[in-house]
Amino acid sequence: MNITQEFETIAAISTPLGTGGVGVIRISGGKSFEIIANISDKKNFPAGKICHGWILDGETKIDEVIILPFKSPNSYTGEDVIEIQCHGGINVVQNILDVVLKNGARMAERGEFTKRAFLNKKLDLSQAEAVDDLIHAKTSNFAIQSAKNLSGVLGVKIGEIKSEIFEVTSRIVAGIDFPEDVVEPEYEYLIDKFKKSLNDIDKILSCAKSSDIMRQGIKVAIVGRPNVGKSSLFNSLLNLDRAIVTDIAGTTRDIIKENIDLGVSVTLIDTAGIRESSTIDKVEKIGIEYSKQSAKEADLNIFLYDATCGLLDEDKEIYEIIKDMPHIVVANKCDLIELKDFKEILPDTVRISTYTKDGLDELKSKMKKFVCSISPEDTEFVTNKRQQNCLIRCKESLQNALNAAEREELQDMIYIDLKSALLSLDEITGEVITDEILNNIFDHFCIGK
Ligand SMILES: Nc1nc2c(ncn2[C@@H]2O[C@H](COP(=O)(O)OP(=O)(O)O)[C@@H](O)[C@H]2O)c(=O)[nH]1
Ligand SMILES: [Mg+2]
User: CB within 5 A of ion ligand 2: which residues?
Assistant: First the structure.
């Protein structure tokens, strides 16, 4: 592989800033080997061989480290790369980075290592985006799906669709350029081919909704009147004492959010109890408004009431707000009543006690069932909004080509549509891309990646 671009040498801390077993500082660019030779007690760094030594700042010993040398093009970025594994303390990694910067590297920008990997053709753009997805995945499921894209699944599929369209385009061009020697392709053949490509694109786009859900997660709000045990349930689902629980109505005044992993990332929202009362103050009133808003915006509401009281008018008013949206009815404090005394007022009520934890597994499995109903666990193709937009544009061009072929229009016209279909696909993998789009993608990355 030829490295066509010559960049400055960059460096960054690649591990999260904090205390840990190991910290990693990464250097990439033409001066990497020179810099490490200047700042280490070793002078020889055979590519692919693990080296052990000290990082020095002049005479001062900074840390005892492991050095991993990679020679271009066999590295993450495709350039010469040095990775320094040091002891994982905030100051020690910073001290090493400072020495590296003092010796001729500049601080890397967000995503600059991966951007260079892309520019040096170590990854296509869909793989580079998968790196970011993998790092930021909120659930193990999404991490696995992102790893599929990192291995190139999406890029390969796009490549297949592209070569189908390319084959047709070449035959059309040959017919146009050499009308005496080459017969232009039959319209029936074109129609078949376009339908097949449209079908392939639809298959990827059919996973768009579950891709979005996997990436962003869903919102689940716990709603109910004060004191029914919303905060207790919130804490139980999190396995954490996060929200304050008291027997005083109006304890929760703000919205509290935390994430749990139910195959997709679920943002669990504890809300202020919704009630009308002359004693509520301004703060609680605002909290109640937020609660109503959260209920309306949630993908799923858990409607909680107190089994010992049954459904009061206040409960019914809240139920009215959410009854036409996806919801689960939950009766809490079932530890306080005899099983035989429980009357199911609303269908499919889950009976729980946040004290004894009875019924929580059933509630969780109902939540999971809902999650699965909107996002199947195995999504064949994970895409992001940018990729989906490219696919939609490609689909429009192909649809135009199909319409034209069905009307048996001049093949010159069809050729123009096919060219734009190909361009849209090239954008997904990054073969055709503007600097603006590129910067926009990598600006979201972490420093050091
Ligand atoms: N007996 C019993 N009490 C509960 C249960 N869940 C919550 N509580 C109590 O009900 C009161 C109100 O709980 P809290 O979670 O603050 O309710 P919220 O106002 O809806 O958030 C507190 O005194 C809790 O200890 C339960 O399952 N059983
Ligand atoms: Mg509360």
Answer: 230-231, 252
335 lines ligand 1 (CB under 6 A): yes
Q: Is 275 in the pocket of ligand 1 (CB under 6 A)?
A: no
CA of 101 to the centre of ligand 1 (A): 56
The pTM for the full model equals 0.80
**Ligand 1 atom nearest to CA at 353:** 27
What CATH class does 219-374 carry?
Answer: alpha beta
- CATH 3.40.50.300 intervals, the chain: 219-374
Atom of ligand 1 minimally distant from the CA of 224: 20
Portions of the chain given CATH number 3.30.1360.120: 10-124
Residue 401 buriedness (CB in 10 A; 0-12 / 13-18 / 19+): buried
Q: Summarize pLDDT for 326-359 with one digit per residue, the tens.
A: 999 999 999 998 877 788 889 899 999 999 999 9
> Which residue lies with its CA nearest to atom 9 of ligand 1?
229
| Pocket lining: 231 vs ligand 1, CB cutoff 6 Å | yes
Architecture in CATH of 10-124? 2-Layer Sandwich (3.30)
Domain at 132-207+382-430: CATH architecture: Up-down Bundle (1.20)
CATH 1.20.120.430 residue window(s) in the chain: 132-207+382-430
